[in-house]
Design brief:
Elements: E1 2-10, E2 14-17, E3 20-23, H1 24-33, E4 40-48, H2 54-64, E5 70-74, H3 81-90, E6 96-100, E7 104-106, H4 111-119, E8 124-132, E9 138-140, E10 143-146, E11 148-151, E12 171-173, E13 180-184, H5 185-190, H6 203-213, E14 217-228, H7 240-250
Helix pairs in contact: 1-2
Length: 264
């Protein structure tokens, strides 16, 4: 039986999407638990920030039922996404680690089977999903690193095939977003997890480049489809020192993308 640990950093934020009010992390975890494939032993580790309401933690634990499939781990420090991921991984028991943003929701069953199928190849170190904005347009179909660091297919219709159908096929990409990223635990440990010097931005870029430097590949899986309720107009708040750090560490890998054409 394959074991998967889903790590979800969260502070229990509430918002209005798809016509209703929701606690994002509760619905994200609910959608994951509702689509666990047979033959997969799955646990959810929610890394709870300081602002997490106690009632939301209770709802999450209740979703796990008597099996204890959902656990909450307290993170009592200033926000650092990389540190929360590493803390969740330290408490994880699975042979695969699935990093998941709390503002996501599974669109249809079969997503995890497809990601696990891609990760079954021993050369693969990170698998990313197809993520959709609330309006149904593409948010992510992999990363492209070519001076600017961008999401492939950003803003295209969800069913857009892309040049030569590249958006419809499982394929190697420069990297994938940590909003939904599956990695074998052995690879996560091999590359040292997430770098806490990237608390808010570029942590997944750095992780994917470490995965590639270790001799593994990053893969996009188009049949794993989730909503990602990130605002299209969100200001990322990228600090100059973050740009300087990612360029200092990986500039040679950020000037060209051997996997994705300039025009998708």
């Amino acid at each position: 039986m394959t074991s998967v640990s889903v790590v979800v950093p969260s502070i229990g934020t509430t918002g209005h999407v798809l016509g209703g009010e929701r606690v994002f992390v509760v619905e994200a975890v609910r959608s994951v638990l509702a689509t666990v494939p047979s033959g997969v032993d799955l646990e959810v580790v929610v890394v709870s920030g300081r602002e997490m309401p106690a009632e939301v933690e209770r709802q999450l634990v209740d979703l796990g039922g008597t099996s204890g499939a959902v656990r909450c781990v307290d993170y009592d420090a200033a926000f650092n996404f990389s540190a929360t991921v590493n803390l969740g991984a330290a408490h994880a028991r699975g042979e695969h680690l699935l990093l998941l943003n709390d503002d996501t929701e599974v669109v249809a069953p079969g997503w995890l089977e497809r990601m696990l199928d891609a990760a079954a190849d021993p050369t693969v170190g990170a698998v990313g999903a197809k993520l959709l904005f609330e309006d149904g347009t593409l948010q992510h179909a992999g990363h492209t690193y070519r001076t600017s660091l961008d999401h492939i297919g950003f803003g295209l219709p969800a069913d857009a095939p892309g040049r030569t159908g590249l958006l419809r096929h499982r394929r190697e990409v420069a990297g994938v977003t940590a909003a939904c990223l599956l990695t074998p635990m052995r690879v996560f440990d091999l590359v040292g997890g997430f770098c806490t010097r990237f608390p808010g931005n570029y942590n997944d870029v750095d992780f994917c480049l470490k995965v590639r430097a270790s001799g593994h590949r990053c893969v996009y899986e188009p049949d794993a489809v989730l909503w990602h309720f990130e605002s299209r107009s969100r200001v990322a708040g990228i600090r100059p020192e973050e740009v300087e750090l990612i360029q200092r560490r990986w500039l040679r890998e950020l000037v060209d993308d051997p996997f994705t054409p300039v025009v998708v």
